[in-house]
Write a structure and sequence with these properties.
Layout: H1 3-23, H2 43-46, E1 48-55, E2 65-73, E3 79-86, E4 94-105, E5 108-112, E6 125-132, E7 138-142, E8 149-153, H3 160-172, E9 181-182
Antiparallel strand pairs: 1-2, 1-8, 1-9, 2-3, 3-4, 4-5, 5-6, 6-7, 7-8
Length: 188
Amino acid sequence: MTFRTFIPAIAASALVIAAAASARADGYRDTGVPMTVQEDLDLSRYLGTWYEIARFPNSFEEGCEGVTATYSAREDERISVVNRCRREGLDGPVEAAEGVARVRAPGKLEVNFVSWLSWLPLTWGDYWVLDVTEDYSVAVVGTPGGEQGWILARSPELGAEELDAAKSVLRSNGYDPEALEMVPQTKE
């Protein structure tokens, strides 16, 4: 990368970071409610593919269906992250975003999808595992500012009881589950 292309790239990245920071003010969570995380999270059991069942609306997943997240261990003790979504319906083209996650504290991870700027602290986003079922079949993930949150499952469908339990976790962490949008998924 030449100096001529480096400066516009930094400027564009600064705009993306500023937009992300301004989105934090419009969260889906009462930040006065303390958050709890799954402190005994077993990362080796968390690895693998998760289907996105529900999410709080966000700009980077707008129009995404059939969303999955696949986590795998790396030799440097970090975690590879590959998020996939289908555009234009469940039969539409697949888009993938590759990133990396690191553990900050038990149940608290940070993710980065801007590898060439990973040295900048502002390119890392919070990813807190609020709850995971005993059999690691359902997980609830959120962010301290409440700008994002997800209900994930190991299969593309989730029963009403499991969905209600996951929403209850969000509610107890200050989220408004009524703002969730269900994510269309393909059948296995």
